[in-house]
Amino acid sequence: MDRRHAGCAVRCEANLMACGRFRMTNTTAQLGGALSDSLRSASEIAHRALALGAAVSISFEAEREELHIWLRETGIAAYLTEPERDFVFSASPSEKEILSFSWRSEGLTVLLWAIGKIDELPLPNEQCSTEALADILPPFGEETLNQFLSSSQLRSPQLLLDTAHAIQELNALARQRQRKPGYKSELPPVDFEAINERHRAINWVVGYCGQDWENVTADT
Questions:
Q1: Hey, how many other C-beta atoms are within 10 angstroms of the C-beta on 102?
Q2: I want to staple 189 with a disulfide (CB 3.0 to 4.6 A). Which of 53, 98, 116, 125 is the partner?
Q3: What is the pLDDT of residues 114-156, one digit of tens each?
Q4: Comparing C-alpha atoms, which of 29, 34, 9, 30 is closest to residue 172?
Q5: Which residue from 24, 45, 42, 179 is spatially nearest to 108, judged by alpha carbons?
Q6: Which of 74, 93, 109 is nearest to 194 (CA)?
Q7: In terms of Cα–Cα distance, which of 177, 158, 157 is closest to 169?
Q8: 76 pLDDT tier (thresholds 50, 70, 90)
């Protein structure tokens, strides 16, 4: 583990402990996936973040025409999933679609963290900063597309797996509290919508059950 990953591990460990999460062994098995699951590459995650980022930007009223031109000229449009493509190029997306893609900013935060673009994840009771995301992602951010792709570095496999398990535990806690208000009230609060989106994203990053982006589950 290099110094950048080690520093992040310390910060994440502190956040896990503060939120009632705990470290584990044999992480892949505890996630409920298969031992053959494999991590996505930095390039895969970066391209997924760029495509998802375009959809999230639209949900927050980014300049649609400019984004359409950028997606087509750079070829990033090819990385949009079918639902993302329908939303991004729709002349009049529904309020339900806009709300749904705005929540996916939480999953986008996980993708950017996984490739070193964000130092640490928000706490489980905090929502991400969409302004910070806009500053990171092309075409509106500080880096060009080539700079963004070339500087993307995958965090250590153990840190990614540890984080996947920690988020899984938090999601399980949030779901229990939905069924039984006050469940384990001694533990800090968790934003269910935010942690569920982060859970789906980190499961995709670690290759959970080989599921693709639109079908990845947040099993607890």
A1: 15
A2: 125
A3: 999 999 999 999 999 999 999 999 999 999 999 999 999 999 9
A4: 30
A5: 45
A6: 109
A7: 177
A8: very high
Question: Given pLDDT bands bounded at 50, 70 and 90, which one contains residue 79?
Answer: very high
Q: Where are the alpha helices (DSSP H) in 89-217?
A: 95-103, 105-114, 130-136, 145-150, 157-179, 192-205
Q: How far is 155 from 202, CA to CA, in rounded Å?
A: 12
The whole-number pLDDT of residue 23 equals: 37
Query: Is residue 14 classed as helix, strand or coil in its secondary structure?
Result: helix
How far is Cα 17 from Cα 34, in angstroms, rounded to an integer?
27
Round the average pLDDT of the chain to a whole number and report it. Answer: 87
In the chain, domain spans: 34-215
DSSP 121: P
Residue located via tokens 């499961």: 203
